[in-house]
Amino acid sequence: MINFDDIFKQIKESTHTIHAIVSPLASNDLANVLLSLNQAPILAEYYKEVYEVTKNSHALLINLGTLNQSKLMGIKEGLKSAKENNIPIILDPVGASATKVRLETSLYYLKNYPIKVLKGNYSEIYSIYHKKLTTSGVDAKNIAKEEIIKICQDLATMYNTIVVASGKEDIISDGKETLLLKNGSPLLPKVTGTGCILGGIIAAAYSFEKNLNAIALAISILNIGAELAIKDKGMATFKISLLDQISLIDSKTIEERIIYEKL
Ligand SMILES: Nc1ncnc2c1ncn2[C@@H]1O[C@H](COP(=O)(O)OP(=O)(O)O)[C@@H](O)[C@H]1O
Ligand SMILES: Cc1ncsc1CCOP(=O)(O)O
């Protein structure tokens, strides 16, 4: 049984600043989720201020969700600052399976910066590994779990990082240890931005403890929150109820409900 008491207490009792460069589509929900977990989100992407913001933060989340030239200039400053000031970088390569620019950008960041956590859906992780496009949009295609597990393990070793592949079952690997998490709801992929929110929770949890358990906690906050949310009143109610459940969840509930395997 994983014990989440200590890290959950740290998150709830002390506030870290999380610098998120994220798609505007998901930014409001992501910021509110972080606030509800007692964390301090800051969304800044103007290249003239990004270096300073990252330097004063506990983690930098880079989400490629909605790219443009000025955002890329901002991201470059954030990555430089994180590297020089030893701030952990969490990369969410949204759409890396769908466009050449996103795939090449993700590969460039992985090669040139110390990415501590790479978190994508199955297709994004598959595309980064095989260096080829596999989707036309941001959602994942069906790929065998066994294949993605091996890819996560190999990518983690190749880039000296923790790899998270989200989907019906979530995979977390640092190349040596691998966890498979089985909570969640089929409604989650029907709400846009839930993967982006997950990136934010991972960035916050990882800033407290730099290990697989912190990431397992982050995924469980979202997935068990979704299991507890209202599902029979339509998608808008589900989403609001999900945000409620995330703000109310405690470590005991997570420990009781988590379903996982150590591989
Ligand atoms: N079919 C599913 N059943 C249960 N949970 C799911 C399912 N698909 C995705 N999830 C959960 O939804 C969250 C977002 O994952 P995913 O949809 O893969 O990300 P993205 O939005 O980046 O494509 C994760 O916490 C994941 O565990
Ligand atoms: C629909 C869409 N288009 C560009 S980013 C985005 C949201 C993706 O968010 P998530 O992967 O978290 O569902």
UniProtKB/TrEMBL annotation:
Purpose: Catalyzes the phosphorylation of the hydroxyl group of 4-methyl-5-beta-hydroxyethylthiazole (THZ).
PANTHER family: ATP-DEPENDENT (S)-NAD(P)H-HYDRATE DEHYDRATASE, ATP-DEPENDENT (S)-NAD(P)H-HYDRATE DEHYDRATASE FAMILY MEMBER
Family: Belongs to the Thz kinase family.
Cofactor needs: Mg(2+)
Superkingdom of origin: Bacteria
Keywords assigned by UniProt, alphabetized: ATP-binding, Kinase, Magnesium, Metal-binding, Nucleotide-binding, Thiamine biosynthesis, Transferase
Protein name as annotated: Hydroxyethylthiazole kinase
Cited InterPro entries: Hyethyz_kinase, Ribokinase-like
E.C. no: 2.7.1.50
Entries under HAMAP family matching the protein: Thz_kinase
Gene Ontology molecular-function annotations: hydroxyethylthiazole kinase activity
Organism annotation: Anaerococcus groningensis
Key word Ubl conjugation present: no
The protein's annotated pathway: Cofactor biosynthesis; thiamine diphosphate biosynthesis; 4-methyl-5-(2-phosphoethyl)-thiazole from 5-(2-hydroxyethyl)-4-methylthiazole: step 1/1
Enzyme class: transferase
Residue positions binding ATP: K119, S166
Keyword Cytoplasm (UniProt): no
